[in-house]
Amino acid sequence: MSVSESLARSRQPFRPFFALAALDAIAGVLPWLLPDSSPSVNGHREELLWGMVPAVMAGFLLTALPRWTRAPPVPAALVDALLLLWLAGRVAHWWWPDHGSLLAAAFILGLAATLGARVIGAGKTREYKIVALLVLLALSALLPGVAAGRIPAGFPHRLALACVLALVAIISGRIIPALTATWLCLHGRGPGRRLPLLFERASALALAVALSCWCLDLGGGTPASACAAILHSARLLAWRPRDALGHPGLLALYLAYGWLPAGFALLFLHQAGLGSFGESAVIHAWSVGAVGLMCLAVMASMIRRQTRRPFSNSWTLTAALACGATAVPARLMAEVAGRIWLLPAAACWLGAFLLFLLAFRAELLWPSIRSRSPVDRTRADARPPG
Question: Which domain holds residue 124?
């Protein structure tokens, strides 16, 4: 690898954004473990939805854009400007909360504009929906500051979570089948059949309707929740999760996506008055599982792919993914068995992201010294997009 290529790789957008996203995930939960601390529930949600998740999205999208659009990498100056804007938003979130959401919205809009300009120039119409969802996510961050008192309580956070879940569904539909097909190919097995376009559209429509009914607190949302749970469970099973059992990274992606239909199933039970779980369980199934664990698994997958080791693994990373997966049921147990379960849930969440940073400390902190073995380069030949 030449010096210029090594420098270019060390400047890849995922490196600073993923490292800061993991640190932000830790900072958002750590106050809950401190004695005599009473952190704001809204602040806790905003830390995830307008802090950690946008950083993960920025690292993923800015790194994947050149491959999606067949264009040169995003200029380093623009990446640095977005990074500084994100940092300003996080500082404001802690010290000047009234301005934190406005800066978060500015960062997300900047990311949406960067993505929009690239995909429009490349004529990639299928990426427009990602741009639209980012704009909606930015709007959700703006609402508490510009429309306070004129919108229902909790609506901005519902809208933000709905946008993030839609992004999870879109990006998972690209990453998980592609990685599974590559994994099977490396082991001499043929990939499964692609899902029919009509089914994909039906599952997307069911997701949009169910999330809209939930966001707007509309009556009659029970059938929509049931439909979304069924269709997205079928979508997950069609990707052949049984074939992922041999690789922890793949398995974590499947487990994370599984919390999307599981959340709709819990929402259906809540709306129908059939279970002991409340809406808080639904929100945490989605936020800790479908969002938190998915962010962890996607970051790990992209780092391995970008460093030419798509299916490498280590005990540290396996432990990180195991902690992330355990945090979800532990947090749900707190809904039915009492707040005593909050401590293990928080400990698992913190352990997951601390171990993630430990597992990828070389790739994220000093990437120029990372070497690649011949085996790594061979495995990279069949790597999937994104």
Answer: 12-151
